[in-house]
UniProtKB/TrEMBL annotation:
Keywords for the protein's UniProt record, in alphabetical order: Oxidoreductase
Any one Gene Ontology molecular-function term assigned to this protein's record: oxidoreductase activity
Family, per entry: Belongs to the short-chain dehydrogenases/reductases (SDR) family.
Keyword Oxidoreductase set for record: yes
Organism expressing this protein natively: Streptomyces chengmaiensis
Name of the featured protein: SDR family NAD(P)-dependent oxidoreductase
Chain ranges passing through the membrane: none
Signal peptide positions on this chain: none
InterPro entries in the cross-refs: NAD(P)-bd_dom_sf, Sc_DH/Rdtase_CS, SDR_DHRS6-like, SDR_fam
Enzyme Commission designation: 1.-.-.-
Species lineage: Bacteria, Bacillati, Actinomycetota, Actinomycetes, Kitasatosporales
Class of the enzyme per the UniProt entry, highest EC level: oxidoreductase
Pfam families in the cross-refs: adh_short_C2 (PF13561)
């Protein structure tokens, strides 16, 4: 029997990319999985899909309550739903700032708030937030996105401190550029997507992007009882992007 057998997991943004790979991996390891997404129509059994927008508090509360009732509780919350934004501080107006922070930061606050009563009742409660290397990397042309993920990082640490005595662990993963429909959409906007993809791969220390499954494996580990003494950390899954200082060839 897998150590995740019988655990009940809720994954936001679980209909695509990293969230989808995470939901599928948790289910494959024996967890009962609910997916909360804007469009959960592609979520396959045995997972259950719930339509909600993490920027809308009442839709989040309804979806979390329905998922908790159907699963019989929540042990694992994966706060993964997120959106991107490109540009410097001059390129995004206030409405764009409010929108991205509303989804990427407040989305986590809303879902966690709704899930906390269920997590408190669990013997293996774990929250894993999808952050990004953008939180601390100083990436150009990513002011708004980086600020939102910096907030996710510090929110993770604060939540870990607030709930450690309740037996609720809170960690985050910091993926590097990861093969998902999100990155496909960005590359498709380039004049020459194939050469843009080749250039993106070449900029990675490993010469390739991270896979969604590799990020999912890190999330599953942090969510599992095997990580019972781990809380308040950010686990980089970035092919060495942040840790290595490679000399140019
Ligand atoms: P994706 O676009 O493939 O999937 C995102 C999912 O989130 C979609 O299913 C979408 O419907 C859902 N979603 C978006 N806004 C939502 C909302 N308001 N309410 C509910 N669901 C919503 O993206 P992905 O690449 O898998 O990204 C997932 C997470 O990983 C994001 O938080 C992103 O910031 C983070 N991340 C991605 C990369 C990357 O290179 N792909 C790198 C670092 C971090």
């Amino acid at each position: 029997m897998s150590e995740m057998s019988g655990l009940r997991a809720l994954v936001t943004g679980g209909a695509s990319g990293i969230g989808r790979a995470t939901a599928e991996l948790l289910a494959a390891r024996g967890a009962n999985v609910a997916v909360l997404d804007l469009d959960p129509s592609s979520v396959d059994k045995p997972m259950r899909g719930y339509a909600a927008d993490v920027s809308d508090d009442s839709s989040v509360r309804s979806a979390v309550a329905a998922a908790a009732a159907d699963l019989g509780g929540i042990d694992i919350l994966v706060n993964n739903a997120g959106i991107g934004a490109a540009g410097t501080v001059e390129d995004n107006d206030d409405a764009q700032w409010h929108r991205v922070l509303d989804v990427n930061v407040l989305g986590i606050v809303r879902t966690t708030r709704a899930a906390l009563p269920h997590l408190r009742a669990s013997a293996h409660a774990a929250v894993v937030n999808t952050c990004s290397i953008a939180a601390t990397a100083g990436l150009p042309q990513r002011a708004l996105y980086s600020a939102s993920k910096g907030a996710v990082h510090s929110l993770t640490l604060a939540m870990a401190a607030d709930h450690v005595r309740e037996g609720i662990r809170v960690n985050c993963v910091n993926p590097g550029t990861t093969e998902t429909p999100w990155v496909d959409r960005l590359l498709d906007q380039a004049a020459d997507p194939a050469s843009e993809r080749a250039a993106l791969n070449a900029r990675q220390p490993m010469g390739r992007l991270v896979t969604a499954h590799e990020v999912a494996a890190a999330v599953a580990y942090l969510a599992s009882p095997a990580a019972a003494s781990i809380t308040g950390i950010a686990l980089a899954v970035d092919g060495g992007m942040q840790g290595l200082r490679l000399r140019p060839e």
